[in-house]
């Protein structure tokens, strides 16, 4: 019974498969279940994620974590496809508490994996309505400081975007879902024994 109508503010025409992807994201976000959208490169994961960000904008601020080189592209795509959202690109020179303290509904902060790790004490006190991890294979190792920092963030809903959810071993997937949907795949020991080994 969840309405999966594409948000009005989205300035893009979704292809059929993107509409299906959006509908799936909408249902999962309604249930509070984290999602991993694992499409090949170039199939429009970003625009589907932007639709989700627009849909959830009234619930509070959102955080997009992406590789450093992709951050400016996220800011441009957000401004292009969802001009009603207020976008802040956190960089080395713009990372003070005043930027974070003024956040509210319709705000989207874009940062890098490295800065999310370094600035975890700045980001952790915020209750994020939505957390998006782009190129989410960056957290394939649960023992890294980056994976630990992102797991500490308080987010109402979490979305991972990646073309390669499993790069080397099944532990990549477990690590990713440990952040995106904590507890879904159980403890590492039981997951390892049941699936990885």
Radius of gyration: 16 Å
Q: Strand share of the residues?
A: 15-25%
Q: Which overall shape is indicated by the principal axes computed on the Cα atoms?
A: globular
Order of helices and strands: HEHEHEHEHHEHEHH
Helix count equals 9
Largest sheet: 6 strands, parallel
- What distance separates the N and C termini? 40 Å
Descriptive labels:
six-stranded parallel sheet; 197 residues; globular; single chain; 6 strands; 9 helices; alpha/beta
Give a brief description.
With 197 residues, this protein is α/β, with parallel strands linked by helices. The protein contains 9 helices and 6 strands, in the order H-E-H-E-H-E-H-E-H-H-E-H-E-H-H.
Q: What is this structure's SSE topology?
A:
Elements lengths: L15 H16 L3 E3 L7 H11 L6 E5 L4 H11 L4 E4 L7 H5 L5 E6 H6 L1 H4 L3 E8 L10 H7 L2 E8 L8 H11 L7 H9 L1
Parallel strand pairs: 1-6, 2-4, 2-5, 3-4, 5-6
Helix pairs in contact: 1-2
């Amino acid at each position: 019974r969840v309405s999966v109508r594409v948000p009005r503010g989205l300035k893009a025409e979704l292809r059929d498969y993107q509409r299906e992807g959006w509908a799936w994201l909408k249902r999962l976000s309604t249930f509070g279940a984290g999602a991993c959208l694992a499409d090949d490169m170039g199939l429009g994961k970003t625009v589907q994620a932007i639709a989700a960000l627009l849909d959830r904008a009234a619930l509070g601020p959102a955080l997009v974590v992406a590789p450093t080189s992709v951050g400016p592209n996220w800011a441009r795509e957000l401004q292009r496809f969802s001009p009603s959202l207020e976008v802040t690109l956190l960089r080395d020179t713009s990372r003070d508490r005043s930027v974070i303290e003024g956040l509210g509904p319709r705000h989207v902060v874009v940062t890098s994996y490295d800065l999310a790790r370094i600035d975890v004490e700045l980001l952790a006190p915020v209750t994020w309505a939505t957390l998006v991890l782009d190129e989410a294979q960056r957290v394939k190792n649960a023992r890294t400081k980056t994976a630990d920092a992102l797991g500490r963030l308080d987010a109402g809903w979490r979305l991972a975007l990646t073309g390669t959810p499993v790069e080397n071993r099944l532990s990549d997937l477990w690590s990713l879902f440990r952040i995106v949907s904590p507890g879904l795949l159980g403890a590492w020991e039981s997951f390892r024994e049941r699936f990885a080994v």
